[in-house]
Amino acid sequence: MPNTLFPLSFRAALLGGVALAAAPAALAQQLNEPQTPISAPDAPVPDGEDQIGFAADSLQYDSNAEVVTANGNVQLLRDGNRLRADKVVWNRNSGKVEAQGNVSVTDPEGNIAYGDRFDVTDTLKDGAVDNMLLVLQSGGRLASAKGERVSGIYTLHHAAYTGCTVEGSDGCPKEPTWQINAVRVIYDPVRQRVSYKDATIELFGLPLIPLPGLSHPVGDGGSSGLLVPNLRYDRNNGMEVALPYYFKLAPNRDLTVTPHVYSDTLPMLESTYRHLWDRGAYQLTGYITHGRRVGIGDAASTTPADAQKDLRGYFDASGAMQLSPEWSLDGSLRLATDRTFLRRYDISREDRLRSTIGAQRIGENSYFSLRGWAVQTLRQGDSQGQTPIALPVIDYRLRMKDPLLGGVLQLQANSLAITRTSGQDTQRAFAAAEWNLRTLTGLGQEVTFTGYLRGDVYHSSDNILTSVSSYAGSPGWQARGIAAAAVDMRWPFVGEAFGGVQRIAPRVQIVAAPHLANLSLPNEDARAVDLEDSNLFALNRFAGYDRFEDSSRVVYGLEYSLDLPNFSLQSNVGQSYRLTDRTSILPDGTGLSDRMSDIVGRTTIRYKDFIAFTHRFRLDKDSLAVRRNEIDATVGSKKTYAMVGYLRLNRDAVSGLEDLQDREELRLGGRVQFARFWSIFGSTVIDLTDAAEDPVSVSDGYQPVRHRLGIAYEDDCLTLGFTWRRDYQTNGDARKGNGFALRLAFRNIGI
């Protein structure tokens, strides 16, 4: 075999026909000179469409037959098409190019065709292939006994398509999880679509239903077409078949229409429209059907007399727009025709729907927000007229360095207007200033000084319509001035221990605040109060602005942490003591109603990515009874794990305060992978509340809420799952009972 390297351009060698025809003697002389074999470099990129870049280890030219033969690492490049082969024979008279041995042709879209032998034209666009394998740029594969490419369109006879890998991790061939077999397959790279004649899908080697006229897009762009149907059965609607159809309206807009057909009730139509543009995006989703709905409003009646047939549905819209690097707009609209629609059709289990609209500006040291929101209650027995509408909600904050004392000064202005159709209306405005200075002493103590000033103005009406008197406040105009100061000292001791780093940090805080006329003001945003480790050292342990803790107090605690390789432990515990003996506005059950507070703490343990454990607690200051016991733990890997969640609230709370009900609940979940791609999973929620937590409870202390159990298969190209679920609670026409769902998703099909 000659050992001469000829990295030639077809501009000068093949199409031009000048260099080889004029110098056969020079070519023969070079072939006779033995040289060290050299692999050909990539073919040069031609300058025009009528030129071909060419490279090979050796070249022979028969001037009589006008046949060029290239051997060894042959490469041809023309108009974005690249051919590689061990040997290429080109007939200049007919324009036929025959490639043999490890042949591959890459088109401009990045698709690669492999075969034993290629017969192509010298344009490299058209030709026929034996034993063809077409690897699509999007990840799918097409294989056939014979294939051809004409004008850039591939046609494969007796072919199969799959989006799965056909090679295992050990490099050995393997059967794909699924494939589509057909008499003929046509692939158009420009449209990014595969069409079949007489197709049948095969799953785990077993043929399933035939799919006449099947076609689907490939790649990330997607195209219009049917999506994989969803199958489900439940107690409310019977057997359900949902068949989505996807409309690609533009590269940045699409519409999905999904008819839901049920065996026990009338069909439902679902549609989703999405639009993305350079400054933002929005999405519109709607459901509509006609059926019987049972009233569970204020009277919570579920008798047949209260049922009526009417249009039922749900609308969900959301979007956001970035006007500039600082300014943005966002909003959402969520509405349901009745309180049980979402649960009846298993769309959502939310009990309140919140709609919002807002604009915000985030600067380097400032923040401005203008928002509004409204809530539709879906809770049984809740009054929609008592549900607030907030418009506007204005908040502005400016952070700056204090030029006099040092530290950071933050200025805030806030305004809120709340309206109810059948309840109390409240308007509020305040201006506040907060100063913080953090410093370190020579002994390593971290000391933080805080000063806080605020002035409030309130106006309220229809206060008598608020059922909890401590929330109502006095009608008309009210004003309040707030002043508070605090010194917070943390003294960390850090050192080596147990092969890692240990930190022990005692902490003490002193807060001074004068008596305030809190109860004369409405309480809209500070109703949920519960002492825990996260708010123990807060300046105001109420959740919102309408109540401010007006007690001078000492707060003390201990923080501990241990960091080892692959292991960490953080823990804290603390308590507070009020310096004044006046009656607290914090009610019983919060842990803060007496001068001495309850004891709160938290412990977090992590070991690698295998164990994550968090425990929160609150102990009664007098009896050390457990008032709050909360555990969240996860053990295992990403493939096999168990999760446990336990909550017990036994706070002896005052009855009638809506945010302080006690309960006990257990949540369990887990997944076990028993094969490489197979796993079983399950979860349960159990209500353990009884008279020990809630004296008026009639529960026996073990009331299942929901069970779920399923089996799943997931690999690189297929997701398959079957789930059983049982609900134990009835809400109107959303009845308790069993439900079954089948999930099937093929990857690399392009929709």
Q: What features would you describe in this structure?
A:
The chain is an all-beta fold. Helix content is 3%, strand content 55%. It is built from four helices and 43 strands. The strands form two sheets. It has a 26-stranded antiparallel β-barrel. Strands 1, 2, 3, 4, 5, 6, 7, 8, 9, 10, 11, 12, 13 and 14 form a 14-stranded antiparallel β-sheet that branches. Strand 41 and strand 42 (718-727) form a beta hairpin. The protein is elongated and about 115 Å long. The model is unreliable at 1-40 and 299-305 (pLDDT under 50).
Task: Please render the helix and strand layout as text.
Layout: H1 19-22, H2 24-31, E1 53-55, E2 58-62, E3 67-78, E4 81-91, E5 96-106, E6 112-121, E7 127-135, E8 141-150, E9 153-162, E10 178-188, E11 193-197, E12 199-203, E13 206-211, E14 215-217, E15 225-226, E16 230-234, E17 238-242, E18 245-250, E19 253-262, E20 268-277, E21 280-293, E22 308-322, E23 327-336, H3 341-344, E24 352-362, E25 366-377, E26 389-401, E27 408-419, E28 425-440, E29 446-461, H4 469-472, E30 476-490, E31 493-497, E32 500-512, E33 553-564, E34 567-578, E35 599-607, E36 611-619, E37 626-636, E38 641-649, E39 663-673, E40 678-687, E41 703-714, E42 718-727, E43 737-746
Antiparallel strand pairs: 1-3, 2-3, 3-4, 4-5, 5-6, 6-7, 7-8, 8-9, 9-10, 10-11, 10-12, 11-14, 12-13, 15-18, 16-17, 16-43, 17-19, 18-19, 19-20, 20-21, 21-22, 22-23, 23-24, 24-25, 25-26, 26-27, 27-28, 28-29, 29-30, 30-32, 31-32, 32-33, 33-34, 34-35, 35-36, 36-37, 37-38, 38-39, 39-40, 40-41, ...
